[in-house]
Design brief:
Structural class: mainly alpha
Number of helices: 8
Shape: globular
Number of strands: 0
Helix content: over 70%
Largest sheet: none
Strand content: under 5%
Distance between the termini: 70 Å
Radius of gyration: 21 Å
Order of helices and strands: HHHHHHHH
């Protein structure tokens, strides 16, 4: 009986530790958006999409920042939030910036749509399966990020990795076939 209680206490402590460290920043900044208010603007979504697919080297000249960057550099300063660690941002906060409650629905719909397409494609080949796994793990991580992080990590990092893997695999198959013929 004592070992079951100890196990439950340990499991509870680990769950509290996980939720208080990883997800507190996402909920804290969303709460601050609700409490202090913010002007909703669809251009936050467009900026995140441009930032996600544009090479980083071009971004300083375009003066485009993600919603997470806006939150840390402008919103926190305007509202006198102190400290630099543990703030992060949230995918839900991005939605709220885009269009209030309707923006949350829009952002989570895009988020879910990308994951559902990749989920359905996973049975077509091992490449799609690995791409889906990369996207799924990214989706969990990006709960405390913004839409630019999600799209960039899924398509630029995950997609490029799978493309390189596919090209290398095709190249090695051709080399193997040429070697077998000689």
């Amino acid at each position: 009986m004592v070992s079951i209680v100890n196990f439950l206490l340990l499991a509870y402590s680990l769950l509290v530790l996980l939720l208080s460290n990883e997800f507190i920043s996402a909920s804290r900044n969303f709460y601050s958006l609700l409490l202090y208010g913010v002007e909703h603007n669809i251009y936050f979504l467009f900026n995140d999409i441009i930032r996600a697919f544009t090479p980083s080297i071009l971004l300083p000249s375009l003066d485009i920042q993600s919603t997470g960057s806006w939150f840390n550099k402008i919103y926190r300063v305007e509202n006198d939030f102190y400290g630099t660690s543990g703030w992060g941002f949230s995918i839900i906060g991005t939605g709220y910036l885009v269009g209030g409650w309707w923006g949350i629905i829009l952002i989570t719909s895009i988020y879910s749509f990308v994951l559902s397409i990749l989920y359905n494609m996973r049975i077509k080949s091992v490449y799609w399966y690995v791409f889906y796994l990369l996207a799924f793990t990214t989706a969990i991580y990006v709960i405390r990020g913004d839409m630019a992080n999600f799209l960039s990590q899924v398509f630029k990092i995950g997609g490029l990795s799978i493309l390189i893997l596919y090209i290398a695999h095709q190249f090695l198959k051709k080399g193997k076939n040429n070697y077998a013929r000689s």
